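Collaborator request, handled under Task 6.
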Amino acid sequence: MGVRATSAGAPRTLSLDTLVRIERGRATSGPAGSRRLTVPEGMRAPLGCDAVAMPARIGPLVMPRLPRVGCVYADSTHWWWLVPSDSDVALEWPAPAHYATGARVPASPSLPGLIHTPDGTLPYTPPIPLYLALCRVTGTPPAWSRPISA
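Structure tokens returned to the collaborator:
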């Protein structure tokens, strides 16, 4: 079932997938002044790109806990990890992490610098291991292991 929209007078049905894509597209346009992290030359991102930001003090604690590290960018305050688009679906990234749809970073004089490039052509850090490592380092239980209250 979808939402009906009209285009040039003809009704058109929009699926839920289409509506989600439209909303994601609006979200990735980002706030004024924000900029997108770029995938390095020679790499491809067939699953799109989002980013998970964490304070710079946490980044070195997370990296050795991961089975594979994708592209990581850093500035003086944050580390940014490229993950496939929609890696926030059904995940509550623990504070102080921040999920950046479209790999958009806040406005600053310069983009964060690339500090790690993986072997191969894919820029991604697998999101579930990143999530679990971040939960471990921050002392936050994963969302699926918390008690459910009625």
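The cover message to the collaborator said: "The first strand starts at residue 3 and ends at 7. The beta strands are 3-7, 10-14, 35-36, 50-55, 72-74, 78-83, 98-100, 104-105, 113-116. Please let us know whether this matches your experimental observations."
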